[in-house]
Amino acid sequence: MKYVALNDLHVSLGAKMIEFAGYNMPVLYNNLIQEHLAVRNSVGVFDVSHMGEFAVTGEGALPLIQAITTNDAAKLTEGKVQYSCMTNDEGGIVDDLLVYCIRPNLEYLLVVNAGNIDKDWAWINSKNTFGAELQNYSSAISLLAVQGPKAIHALQKLTTVDLASMEYYTFKIGSIAGIDEVWISNTGYTGAGGFELYCENKDAKQLWDAIFEAGKEFEIMPCGLGARDTLRLEKGFCLYGNDINDTTSPIEAGLGWITKFTKPFTNSEYHKNLKENGVAKKLVGFEMSERGGIPRQHHLIKDAEGNTIGEVTSGTQSPSLQKAIGMGYVASNFTKPDTEIWIEIRDKKIKAKVVKIPFL
After folding, report:
1. CATH class of domain segment(s) 52-136
2. Residue 345: how many CA atoms within 13 Å on its side-chain side?
């Protein structure tokens, strides 16, 4: 079991701790719905320090990133962030990730999923025929996601960096709460707006305390992984291990927008063929039309005759919409919005319908 720098703080706050991706992580502090709605309506803070951070530098940095990721990192300028994914040799996804551009062509930071740190590190090193310099900072960095419409108002009290001038998917390195060289990133996994703050482990407690003091007037709340999951699902954001994995193509997952065929990447011809000739299955969103349970990963998706046409990848009771929603892969002829499908929950077929993502 690995522990984030603020593990003892979360325990002292009464968080329910669980093992997640090899880390002891807070899944819930008090009430999932309250945490979820705090982020949607005001501001909440997630400790996501379990995420991985790899520095990629040198003349070979951009050629390596271009070779392993589906998006076009050559378009990144200083201070820009890009969502991307790495594909494997078998037609699936190694991981989805963020690419931070510090100096174009020469210096980047890759932020990867916690459960894939070791796998990703080995994969990137195996593909590094370009002489790029690689460093794994994952265990040295803490990451706090301050999310929600009031996040900017709370954080602006703590920094001279003009947060309002920062565009979505950009970052700046500046002083915040008296801590020098915090990475302030206008990104997040909630779809509620806000910032993600990267700092050294030794500064995490000071940063956390300052954020909560600044956010008092907005009734700021600590939030666990449970609310993070319901928030991302309402926005239709993919979760690695659920909605995408080492057997799913980004084209099947609706990630064609981050899959650019202007340059070759691992197994790019396979994915290009899927884009040009169509896919047999596709990731869709759906909402339950009847009561009868909440869709969960691996629940089967059926047609009217009871034939299996797919499988649920994620599902929850949406706190914002107050209805059960989910995502799953279905045969390509069942992907049109308003198509009726049935989810098998506890041996019963419960009616649902395909809807456009995002749900909210």
Report:
1. alpha beta
2. 20
